[in-house]
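Title: Comparing notes on inverse folding

I've been comparing how different people in this forum approach sequence design from structure. To keep things fair, I'm posting one structure and asking everyone to reply with a full sequence. Here's the target:
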C-alpha cells in the first residue's frame, strides 16, 4: 500500500477528527506537521488551492477539509465504513453541528490559555486575527461559554445512554465529529473536568480516544 500523508497540526481538532477515522479503519499514515505561518508545504501539495489543515495525500490524490477527507476515505477504503447509507444525512447534520456550534464554546474556553502560555507573540496575533477576538475578549465570554458547554454535554450524555457509540453499536463519522471538540477541550484540564460530571460522555470519550 502506498503511503498516506496527513498534513496536520498535532493539536488541531479537525486533524484529530481525521486521525480517529484513520485509526478506526486501521490505516497507517505519515504525519506531516505544518506551521501556522509557513504555508509552503500546504501550497505545494494542494497546488495553491488550500492553506489549512488537515490535508490528506494518498495514491497521488489530494483531499482537504476534514469532512470531505472522511467521505473520500470511506470510498477509497470501504472496510470499516464510517458513513452508513441509512445515516448519511444525520451524520452530515451532526458533523455540521459539532464543527460550528459545539466547537465554538470550547474554542473560547481553550484557546486563551494556549495562546497566553505559548510565549509566541506572532502565534497569538495570528490566531486572534483569525478568530476576530483577543484572548481577553474571549475570557469575558467564559461564563456564558461554560453554560453553553454544560448544555451540550447534557444533550450528548442523553444520546449516549445505553450506547457504545454515538449512533449505537458501531463507530461512525458522528463519533469522530463529536469527539474532536472534546480532544481540544482536553488541552485545558481545568475546563475538561466538566466532562467528568457526565458519565456517559466520559465513558464514550475514553473509548474513542483509545481507538488505535
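Reply #1:
Here's my take.
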Amino acid at each position: 500500500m502506498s503511503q498516506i500523508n496527513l498534513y496536520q497540526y498535532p493539536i488541531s481538532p479537525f486533524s484529530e477528527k481525521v486521525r480517529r477515522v484513520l485509526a478506526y479503519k486501521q490505516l497507517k499514515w505519515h504525519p506531516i506537521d505544518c506551521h501556522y505561518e509557513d504555508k509552503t508545504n500546504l501550497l505545494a501539495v494542494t497546488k495553491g488551492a488550500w492553506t489549512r489543515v488537515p490535508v490528506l495525500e494518498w495514491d497521488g490524490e489530494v483531499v482537504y477539509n476534514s469532512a470531505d477527507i472522511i467521505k473520500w476515505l470511506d470510498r477509497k477504503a470501504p472496510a470499516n465504513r464510517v458513513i452508513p447509507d441509512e445515516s448519511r444525512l444525520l451524520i452530515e447534520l451532526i458533523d455540521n453541528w459539532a464543527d460550528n456550534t459545539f466547537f465554538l464554546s470550547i474554542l473560547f474556553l481553550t484557546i486563551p490559555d494556549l495562546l497566553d502560555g505559548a510565549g509566541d507573540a506572532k502565534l497569538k496575533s495570528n490566531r486572534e486575527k483569525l478568530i476576530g477576538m483577543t484572548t481577553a475578549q474571549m475570557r469575558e465570554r467564559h461564563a456564558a461559554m461554560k453554560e453553553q458547554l454544560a448544555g451540550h454535554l447534557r444533550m450528548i450524555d442523553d444520546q449516549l445512554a445505553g450506547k457504545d457509540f454515538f449512533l449505537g453499536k458501531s463507530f461512525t463519522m458522528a463519533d469522530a465529529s463529536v469527539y474532536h471538540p472534546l480532544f481540544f477541550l482536553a488541552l485545558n484540564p481545568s475546563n475538561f473536568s466538566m466532562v467528568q460530571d457526565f458519565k456517559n460522555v466520559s465513558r464514550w470519550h475514553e473509548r474513542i480516544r483509545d481507538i488505535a
